[in-house]
Specification:
It contains 23 helices and five strands. With about 450 residues, it is mostly helical. A five-stranded mixed β-sheet has the order 3-4-2-1-5. About 50% of the residues are buried.
Length: about 450
């Protein structure tokens, strides 16, 4: 087999993982996709990304809907942090330390080497559903999901995701340098690692996932502490980061936990923005839309230019079938954040709910814009297909329905709709080519499934 260049190899690995992961439904965890949460993460990560020379959208920080403690990188395009770890950390500097450590695996070439190892070990097929962005599991939620499939080939996954102690030590040092250059106290790295100290004597089944993929030793922890002392403390102004970290934990925790827990964690006496946002979500989860807005409105009054507050109000209204509130809230959010795909997707959904020709046409334009920025949201693709159908373009409706089924790993349905799209679109048109690609991929996957049986 011809030897691949590094860039080509990474592209091939990413493509293989995406295709393979589309087939995994039963074992899929989900990515928590929410514009407000991701903006908070971007704000928190910005100083570290900048110091690592990785800012500019090339690497995203994504939340995995899993309450265990873990973080990892796969292909150099994203840092994945489990929700449980975010909620367990006590300071934004600790989250920045987690991000810095994972970024160091990228900048130090560890991911590239693991890709080369995967090729040399013949693991492309063995990665069998290793990791990739797939289906929307929480469709219709403000925290809309995209599946992150964990494969059945555990040994292959371990080879790809696991790091050696040498790699971990190198990532510790590089990550702490990123923190120091950003003005963040590098001792936060030691604080994070202390969470996992003492677990090495436990059986693997009782260890946190982070420890299994990031081997930790007491010597390593001592080295981290010593290096933090060499770098010295930093005192950068973290006020903005502190604010968004509080909002991140409040919204994420309120969404994932029971309302009773949220009300205990954020009592009525807590008049912070984070506290009000958390209670707003808790009230919504109890079916109290008016009470949810009563918590949210004072924050909106203080921060009227915050698109993510308007989006949250609009989503609560949409879910409560209050379109008179949902439409103006989403319009305001989209005006303030015109390039945010999840905000645009929400506006498109609300416009479709109006049921007029004018709003259907507007929904089509809005959802096209959302898709051009993020094509991996099956809920948005469903709404886009509906908008095409309502505006008299059935072939394009079939195309986006096929894309949605492909993302969900439902290849027989994807084939049906992709073939309809091919039959109805001009040969060689961009939509025709996409439909043909889906047909080719679906036929290959269907054949592979039969072979695996």
């Amino acid at each position: 087999m011809a030897k691949l260049g590094t860039a080509s190899l990474l592209r091939r690995l990413a493509a293989v993982m995406v295709v393979l992961c589309l087939a995994s439904g039963a074992q899929a965890r989900s990515l928590i996709r929410d514009a407000g949460l991701e903006y908070a993460l971007d704000t928190i990560a910005l100083p570290v990304m900048t110091s690592a020379d990785l800012w500019g959208g090339s690497v995203r920080v994504m939340i995995v809907n899993d309450m265990s403690l873990n973080a990892f990188v796969v292909d150099g395009r994203a840092v994945y942090v489990h929700a449980g770890l975010i909620l367990r950390l006590s300071t934004p500097a600790q989250l920045q330390a987690v991000i810095a450590h994972e970024l160091a695996h990228i900048t130090n070439g560890h991911i590239t080497r693991r890709s080369l190892n995967a090729e040399s070990a013949g693991l492309y097929s063995g990665l069998g559903l290793a990791l990739g962005v797939t289906a929307g599991i929480l469709s219709g939620s403000p925290v809309a999901g995209a599946g992150l499939a964990y494969g059945t080939a555990g040994s292959a996954r371990g080879v790809f995701l696991g790091h050696t102690r040498e790699e971990e030590s190198a990532a510790d040092r590089s990550g702490m340098r990123f923190l120091a250059r950003a003005g963040i106290d590098p001792s936060a790295m030691a604080e994070v690692m202390t969470l996992f100290a003492g677990q090495e004597d436990m059986s693997p089944s009782r260890q946190d996932a982070y420890l299994r993929s990031h081997p930790l030793s007491r010597d390593r922890l001592r080295a981290i502490r010593s290096y933090a002392e060499v770098l010295g403390p930093r005192t950068a102004d973290q006020a903005m980061v502190d604010y968004w970290f509080a909002r991140l934990q409040a919204k994420l925790g309120a969404y994932l936990r029971d309302p009773d827990y949220t009300f205990r964690r954020y009592p009525a006496s807590d008049l912070s923005d984070a506290g009000r946002i958390a209670r707003s979500l808790a009230q919504y989860k109890m079916g109290r839309a008016q009470a949810a807005w009563a918590e949210l409105d004072p924050v909106l009054a203080a921060r009227p230019e915050d698109a993510y507050l308007h989006e949250l109000k609009g989503w609560i209204a949409l879910e409560s079938n209050r379109m008179d509130v949902a439409l103006p809230a989403y319009r305001r959010a989209a005006k303030l954040a015109p390039k945010e795909p999840q905000v645009l997707a929400g506006l498109g959904k609300v416009l479709l709910a109006q049921g007029t020709k004018a709003t259907d046409a507007e929904a089509l334009a809005v959802l096209q814009s959302a898709r051009s920025r993020d094509a991996r949201d099956p809920g948005m693709l469903r709404d886009l297909a509906m908008a095409y159908a309502r505006t008299g373009e059935p072939a394009m409706a079939s195309l986006h329905t096929a894309e949605r089924y492909a993302l969900l790993g439902e290849y027989e349905d994807a084939l049906i709709h992709a073939r309809r799209a091919v039959a109805g679109l001009p040969v060689g048109a961009p939509g025709w080519a996409r439909a043909q690609d889906i047909i080719d991929a679906a036929e290959r996957e269907t054949k592979n499934r039969r072979t695996r049986r």
